[in-house]
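G., the chain you wanted modeled:
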Amino acid sequence: MLRYLPFLLVLALWIYAFIDCLNTPEEEVRGLPKVVWVIIILLFGEVLVGPVAWLVAGRTRRGGPAGAAATGWRRDQGASYVAPDDNPEFLDSLRTGKAAERPDGDEALLKDWEADLQRREEELRRREQQSKSDDES
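Predicted structure as C-alpha cells:
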C-alpha cells in the first residue's frame, strides 16, 4: 500500500491543478492563455512540472489569511458572524415572508388533502366490507 502513495500524491496534485485551472477565470490567469496552461498541466503532469508550474506561476495569488482578500473581509472592519436565530433582520424576514402572506392557500391545500384522504379511507372500508361479504357467501 505504501508503495502506491507517491503515485497517488502525484495523481492528486495533477487532478487538483487541472480542476483549479479549469475553474479559474480567464482574467486571473497569468503568463499564458488558459488553454495553454491546461495543455501544460495535462502533458507534464506525470513529472509534476505542469501542476507545479501552474500553482507557482499560472494563477494569481490570493493574499491574506484564509482567502480574506478574495471575500473582501478585513479584520479591522469589525464584522462578526451572527447566527440566524440571533439576527433580528433574518427573523423579521421570516415573519414577513411569503408563508406569512398566504396562510389561506396552505390551509386550503391541507383541507383538500384531508378530504382526499377521507374519501380514500372510506373507499377502502367499502372494499373490505364487500370482500368480507363475498367470502361469507
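Residues 67-71 have pLDDT under 50 and may be disordered.

Shout if anything looks off.
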